[in-house]
Amino acid sequence: MIFGIIILTIIIAMLIYRLFSVKKQIRIITKQMIELSCGATEKKLDISLIDNDLDLLAAEINKNLKGQRQLRIDTTKSENRLKDSVANISHDLRTPLTSLIGYLQLLQKGELSSEQQEQLEISLRKAKHLQELVVSFYELTIFDSDNMAPNFVKINYSNILMDSITESAPIFEKRGIYPEISLPEESIFVLADEEMLRRIFQNLLSNMAQYAESDIKIILSNNDKTELTFTNLVSKPQDINPD
Fold first, then answer.
1. Is 229 helix (H, G, I), strand (E, B) or coil?
2. What are phi and psi of 235, to 5 degrees?
């Protein structure tokens, strides 16, 4: 009888010990899950557990976490590719739109009938509205993009500058402004991101075409270092939004 009681006591003690061990492991798993949920860690759950059922549960949770982590990575890559594509398409649309608007404005100087003038004004208004939408779309993708690392390659700096000036020429001509351009005889090559550089030139020239009054000078020099200078006079500098 006493022997049976001793055996029963030992069994109960072992069960209590196992129960506390399992509860302790559940608390450990819960703590790790909380850390994962808060983003405090990316570690997998510890599956070195004494209980086989808990071990299997932790293994399944780890498998699910791995799948979710890979899904987040794939989603981020896909979003970045989409943002880059939208930004590139938006920029590619801005350039011909700028030229189109410039030529439409030049057409207004010609001899047109009242009907033709009205149709031209409608076309110009629609083109400007489309340009505003494209610019807004482009700026949205740029501001929202986390992947803005430049792709440095050797490019012809002089040619890209002249391409940008040529594209903006109709706008300058409409206002009767003819920039003074000074370039070295030999082409200048630099390491830069071509798309980003074209966007910078386009923004600078667009601002000059909008605000400049006269004396526009674009000077590219290559002495000890390559320097590009844009200068112009403005009548109302307080109207310029530096943002």
1. strand
2. -90, -30
Q: Domain 91-239 falls in which CATH fold?
A: Heat Shock Protein 90 (3.30.565)
What percent of the chain is modeled with pLDDT above 70? 77
By the 10 Å C-beta count (0-12 exposed, 13-18 middle, 19+ buried), 125 is classed as exposed
Pull the structure tokens for residue 114: 């009242």
Taking each continuous run of H as one helix and of E as one strand, the counts in the chain are 5, 5
End-to-end CA distance of the chain: 91
pTM of the model: 0.45
Tokens of 236: 């109302």
Judge residue 87's burial from the number of C-beta atoms within 10 Å of its C-beta, 0-12 exposed, 13-18 middle, 19 or more buried. Answer: buried
139 vs 14, 145, 173, CA distance in Å? Answer: 67, 10, 27
Nearest-angstrom CA–CA distance, 173 and 103:
10
Domain positions in the chain are 2-75, 91-239
Express each pLDDT in 179-225 by its tens digit: 888 988 888 898 888 878 888 888 888 888 777 777 788 999 888 88
Reference 213, options 236, 230, 180, 188; nearest CA is 236
Mean pLDDT (whole number) for 234-238: 65
